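Task: sequence design from structure.
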């Protein structure tokens, strides 16, 4: 059943899974570590979300316009097999990010507000597989973060954080049964803590040079796949992310809002996906993937007014010799949410939003 694993590659195609809870984007996959032999891959994903809402009547009842910016993502992986039991991989991805741009001229209270957050991560992994097909793996992740924000409705507040880097770690365990294409892998990614030098400015308090403490969240991924017959593969994943401990509260913004956070989340998220891949010919295979993230409730941030999602993705893989090219497209229905200005009453309602995402990946075994 070895060749049917090709169809499972759809789940790793860039932005087809890039709209998750909080500011989750890449999903922090370690799947290249399980490729056979020596392997290299390059992928690109692009997402186009449409997120808009309406202020409550007490704040004018004006529409926000589409506030979610489009974005692209690039990832790269190199995997080396040293022996039949020892493998290593180097993976580059962009695990977390945000792109917010409320249009001006709408009358909406947050009109003109913008925010960008980007991360880049390089992860080195080492895997040891026992003769009983149980693997243990782990390694070090170096991750950088940079962020900017402008919030005109809070005393024309602006902030710019310098890009800084910090280390975290990854640890996991897996069980494989190659003769039926079975693999179950459990992966833990640690929190990564930053002290970000931040330039802040507002009409009320002027310029402040401060330090903002931020921790990107810890997470757990459970990935699985198994062959059903020589041409069909079932696969899926469960991802838990500890968003309750993620908070961006620059010093001046906290003073202006009497303790408010620029970005924070009240609840953790769990994202589920399940798919079926099928090999049609020696060169072509395809897959369909369903995704679900339950709503967590409570108020959402004005810089991220979404809660939960449902998605369906379609993809195809073309294999020629040692090369495989995978492309996929996904439609995401984004869950409705309410925002707040005071933490107790709703300020706006965001409903009936969606996103389209696509990705392409090229992998080569040598």
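Answer:
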């Amino acid at each position: 059943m070895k060749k049917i694993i090709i169809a499972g590659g759809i789940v790793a195609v860039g932005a087809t899974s890039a709209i998750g809870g909080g500011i989750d984007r890449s999903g922090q996959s370690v799947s290249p570590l399980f490729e056979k032999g020596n392997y290299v891959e390059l992928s690109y994903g692009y997402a186009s979300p449409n997120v808009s809402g309406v202020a409550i009547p007490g704040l004018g009842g004006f529409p926000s316009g589409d506030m979610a910016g489009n974005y692209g993502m690039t990832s790269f992986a190199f995997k080396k097999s040293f022996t039949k039991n020892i493998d290593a991989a180097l993976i580059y991805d962009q695990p977390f990010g945000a792109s917010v741009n409320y249009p001006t001229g709408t009358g909406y209270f947050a009109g003109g507000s913008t925010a960008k957050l980007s991360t880049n991560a390089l992860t080195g992994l080492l895997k040891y597989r026992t003769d009983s097909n149980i693997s243990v793996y782990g390694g070090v992740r170096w991750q950088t973060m940079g962020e900017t924000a402008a919030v005109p409705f809070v005393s024309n507040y602006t902030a710019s954080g310098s890009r800084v880097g910090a280390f975290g770690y990854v640890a996991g365990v897996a069980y494989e049964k190659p003769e039926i294409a079975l693999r179950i892998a459990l992966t833990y990614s640690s929190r990564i803590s930053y002290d970000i030098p931040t330039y802040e400015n507002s009409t009320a308090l002027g310029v402040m040079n401060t330090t903002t403490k931020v921790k990107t969240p810890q997470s757990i991924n459970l990935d699985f796949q198994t062959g059903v017959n020589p041409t069909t593969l079932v696969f899926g994943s469960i991802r838990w992310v500890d968003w309750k401990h993620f908070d961006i509260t620059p010093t001046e913004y906290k003073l202006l809002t009497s303790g408010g956070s620029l970005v924070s989340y009240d609840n953790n998220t769990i994202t589920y996906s399940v798919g079926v891949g099928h090999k049609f010919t020696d060169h072509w295979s395809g897959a369909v993937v369903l995704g679900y993230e339950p709503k967590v409730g409570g108020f959402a941030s004005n810089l991220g007014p979404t809660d939960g999602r449902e998605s369906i993705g379609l993809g195809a893989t073309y294999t020629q010799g040692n090369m495989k090219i995978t492309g996929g497209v996904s439609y995401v229905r984004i869950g409705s949410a309410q925002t707040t200005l005071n933490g107790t009453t709703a300020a706006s309602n965001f409903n009936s939003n969606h996103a389209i995402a696509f990705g392409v990946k090229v992998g080569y075994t040598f």
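The domain at 2-365 is CATH 2.40.160.60 (Porin).
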